[in-house]
Design brief:
single chain; about 220 residues; mainly alpha; 2 domains; two-stranded antiparallel sheet; two-stranded antiparallel ribbon; binds zinc ion
């Protein structure tokens, strides 16, 4: 670094003459080299940002506004007015980016803390009750799938038994790759494929909060609460 500082003009000339592609390649190489060092710091920073926002918007309770859920990875920021989709179109996406945005804007009163289960249930409220037969058959299919993989308990191991927030989980955390291989998006399509295949082993039932918290905990390599 000291050489760079005392030879700034030489460096500037060198940087200017260099082909942009080779400059990009060099940048990628050095970023890759630093990545191992940077990653734990970045993860820690993201976690701190999220924790700060959750603390502010839960008034210090670090809990969901509707239920006792307190696992950090099972909590998120929910738009109070239910306009999250519109906000995400033009604004920040994801909990960490949203937390940063909220802090920069003086913690506006537009968010609340909800767990992923309550978040989903709250999003269902404005919709009309589906009375169509296709919804009924989809519900039946889901019920059958949940019943099979929960071995009849119809509940997540945490005790949540509201079928609206129960979902299929891949314990190996390869859900996205598996859905791609089957050519399905998820939901009814996946349930149908599993039923057609005679409910193969390798799946379990979790609620949305446990599903996402487990995935994020595995990804982060730690279990903060
Ligand atoms: Zn909740
Ligand atoms: Zn659960």
């Amino acid at each position: 670094m000291a050489w760079r500082v005392s030879n700034a003009s030489k460096c500037a000339g060198y940087e200017k003459d260099r082909d942009p592609e080779s400059r990009k390649a060099q940048h990628r190489k050095s970023h890759h080299k630093r990545r191992e060092k940077i990653l734990p710091y970045q993860k820690k920073k993201c976690l701190e940002r999220k924790m700060e926002a959750i603390r502010v918007y839960s008034d210090g309770s670090m809990k969901c506004a509707f239920c006792p859920e307190s696992r950090l990875y099972a909590l998120g920021l929910d738009h109070v007015n239910g306009d999250g989709a519109t906000q995400r179109k033009d604004g920040p996406r994801g909990c960490v980016a949203t937390s940063l945005w909220a802090k920069k804007n003086g913690w506006p009163k537009v968010f609340r803390v909800l767990c992923h289960n309550c978040n989903w249930l709250a999003s269902l409220l404005p919709r009309a009750s589906p009375g169509l037969s296709c919804y009924k058959s989809a519900d039946k299919l889901k019920e059958q799938t949940i019943c099979h993989y929960s071995e009849g308990s119809m509940a997540c191991p945490c005790g949540i038994s509201d079928i609206r927030v129960l979902t299929i989980d891949h314990p190996d955390a390869d859900g996205a790759a598996h859905r791609r291989a089957l050519g399905v998006v998820g939901g009814s399509q996946l349930y149908r494929r599993l039923r057609q295949a005679g409910f193969p082993p390798g799946y379990r039932i979790l609620c949305f909060s446990c599903n996402l918290a487990t995935y994020l905990e595995q990804k982060a390599g730690s279990v903060p609460h």
